[in-house]
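Subject: for your reference before the review

Hello V.,

The reviewers asked for a structural picture of the protein, and I figured it would be easier to keep everything in one thread rather than splitting it across files. Below is the amino acid sequence we used in the manuscript, unchanged from the supplementary table.
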Amino acid sequence: MQRPVQKMPNLMQGLSPQCPAATITPMKRNREAIALRQPLRSHHQPSAVQIPRNRITLNVALLLVGALCSLCTAQTPQTADKTHKATANSKDPAISRGEYIVENLAVCTQCHTPRDSAGRPERTHWLEGAPLWLQSAEPTENWPLRAPRIGGALPGTDDEMITLLTTGIWRTKTHLRPPMPQFRMTRQDAESVVAYLKSVKPAQK
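And here is what came back from the structure prediction:
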């Protein structure tokens, strides 16, 4: 026998209009459900990656240190060059002038400084005297075989050297033998040459 089909009672029937359940429609329920889920969804959304503030400070400090090191390295050659110029400028102007005359104009090192095996003047024996390598083009009596020392220890007094450089006359009241040039320097230049020759010290080996 077939059992009679029982109809489920409609729970919505009989409710008064004041009952909230009677006024809720399926569309309204969906909107409320969406509204309820939105806070949860926004709460679980991944936020932007935040770097700790102390790590940012450390990175900035490292960048600054690197920049300062690069600046110091770049300025090192300039500082060394300025130090060299300051040392050069601290030299007595008269000595600097005499050095220029001796080494570039009179070229006293050509005869008064010994030479190495390659024929170059030896800085370790600067103006200390040397065997004379120049030879006369024609027979000459009493040709010197050695040029005397003139650097550090003068062969005469300051006045005798100045007289020689300004007149060509040595303390013997005569001209020196060739190949010594007979200079006619001004007194100021002669004094500068003497000042430089007295200041010469042989370079360390």
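For the response letter, the relevant points are probably these. Confidence is low (pLDDT under 50) at residues 14-24, 39-44, 72-89. Residues 53-89 form the longest helix (37 residues).

Happy to draft the paragraph if you're swamped.

O.
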